[in-house]
Specification:
Blueprint (H helix, E strand, L loop, with lengths): L1 H18 L8 H15 L9 H14 L5 H13 L21 E6 L2 E7 L13 E2 L2 E2 L5
Antiparallel strand pairs: 1-2, 3-4
């Protein structure tokens, strides 16, 4: 009986609090360090459209900002950095982690125009469509 009581006490005092830990705790510096070391190693042509210096400087800037900005802002800033890689197969799934959904799709600019290249599950039907306007404004590539 003492062993059973000890196990129950251990579960409620140690294990249960760990399982109930807030999802708001993100170790951005560890995650960014992982991104900094692993993405260049795993990506076959990471520095085709972004220089290695620019990539590493932006990671360092994100590490500096990691304790100063919201999680949503960090998700977006990392997504912006990944977008600079300039290919359609490198990205994150951060849209699902945002507390506020800004837009339910991802855009990519090709020579032929801007196209929807990613979308939430509810918006999958719009994948591949060309952007011709947004919220009543016509798309114009001459900015």
């Amino acid at each position: 009986m003492k062993i059973f009581t000890c196990l129950v006490f251990t579960y409620f005092s140690v294990c249960l609090p760990l399982l109930c830990q807030s999802n708001d705790i993100i170790d951005w510096k560890t995650d960014l360090e992982y991104l900094k070391t692993q993405l260049p190693e795993l990506h076959s042509n990471l520095f085709n459209k972004i220089t290695s210096e620019e990539f590493y400087n932006e990671i360092d800037q994100l590490m500096y900002l990691s304790e100063k900005i919201s999680h949503d802002a960090m998700f977006i800033k990392i997504e912006q950095l990944i977008a600079k890689v300039g290919d359609s197969h490198t990205g994150t799934n951060f849209i699902s982690k945002l507390t506020k959904k800004y837009i339910p799709f991802f855009l990519y600019q090709y020579e032929e125009g801007i196209f929807i290249v990613g979308a939430t599950e509810d918006e999958k039907a719009i994948l591949g469509n060309k952007l011709i306007g947004f919220n009543g404004f016509c798309h114009n590539t001459d900015y």
